[in-house]
Write a structure and sequence with these properties.
The protein starts with a helix and ends with a helix. The protein is built from 13 helices and no strands.
Length: about 290
């Protein structure tokens, strides 16, 4: 298997793992506070990252890598998990997954801003149409949606796009999984104390389902999925493998319906398809 094919396979596995993040968060946040869930998942993944780096004797990042790693952590380790956990107190996992369809666009926008690229005008046309579709759907749902939840999801997608763009840049120098691990370790001094302070008063009262949700987002969403994802970006190319994110809304909707029994109406599915088509057009002209 050549490097590019391996990159596509790794990227697909990363997206498949990420697709379970919002349903798992929805399960966990029903009993765990968003602060504890965010801090605990990052702390668990951070401790595992230390062991992983030590086992492979990975070199330390250079001084110039610290700022991108910190931005990566701000977006992917802190911002996206916290904002989605808060949002999922107001909206269903299926509703929130529609917003994930905009993640490739936000990632591309930050790549333009940070990398100085100049996409064609058609890129921005597709991007604006996709944003309008998502906004129109979110505010047409009435009782199914929540203005507060929708705004939190928009903010989550923005900061995650920033984290992916910075992570893609620094991964070229450090390697994909090494960048993920160092970013988690940089966040550990903040996240570990926060997890202890925000821990539930009655640990025994938390159900096995909630602990399973925390375990999934800690092990798979924060670490294993990111290892596959950034390794895929490094091997197959950011622009090419990044298009696999287009599959994430479909996988996420299927999980929300199958695992949580949440309704996935024709309008939600149709908007998701339309958003994915817009993102595909935007990526074509990026």
């Amino acid at each position: 298997m050549d490097a590019k094919t391996r990159g596509w396979l790794d990227g697909f596995l990363g997206v498949a793992i990420f697709s379970g993040s919002l349903p798992a968060t929805r399960i966990a946040v029903a009993e765990l506070s968003p602060t504890f869930l965010t801090a605990a998942r990052a702390s668990i993944a951070g401790l595992l990252a230390i062991a992983l780096l030590a086992a492979f004797r990975a070199p330390r990042p250079e001084r110039r890598d610290l700022a991108p790693l910190a931005m990566m952590g701000l977006g992917v380790v802190l911002g996206f998990p916290m904002l989605t956990a808060l949002a999922l107190q107001h909206v269903t996992a299926a509703h929130s997954i529609v917003f994930v369809g905009l993640l490739p666009i936000t990632t591309a926008v930050f790549a333009v801003l940070l990398g100085g690229e100049r996409p064609k005008r058609s890129f921005w046309i597709f991007a604006l149409i996709g944003a309008a579709l998502v906004a129109g759907f979110a505010f047409s749902q009435g009782g199914a949606g929540s203005v507060q939840g929708d705004l939190l999801m928009v903010a989550a997608i923005v900061v995650c796009g920033l984290g992916y763009a910075e992570g893609g840049r620094v991964s070229r120098r450090l390697g994909g999984w090494q960048a993920v691990c160092w970013s988690l370790i940089l966040c550990l001094p903040l996240m570990a104390p926060a997890a202890l302070l925000a821990r539930p008063a009655e640990l025994a009262a938390i159900s096995a389902q909630a602990w399973t949700g925390l375990a999934y987002v800690s092990l798979f969403s924060m670490l294993i999925g990111c290892v596959f994802w950034y390794r895929g970006l490094a091997a197959g190319g950011v622009a090419a493998v990044g298009q696999l994110q287009l599959l994430q809304p479909f996988m996420g909707l299927a999980l929300a319906a199958g695992l949580l029994g949440e309704p996935v109406g024709w309008s939600m599915a149709a908007v998701t398809v339309a958003v994915v088509l817009c993102v595909a057009g935007a990526r074509r002209f990026a």
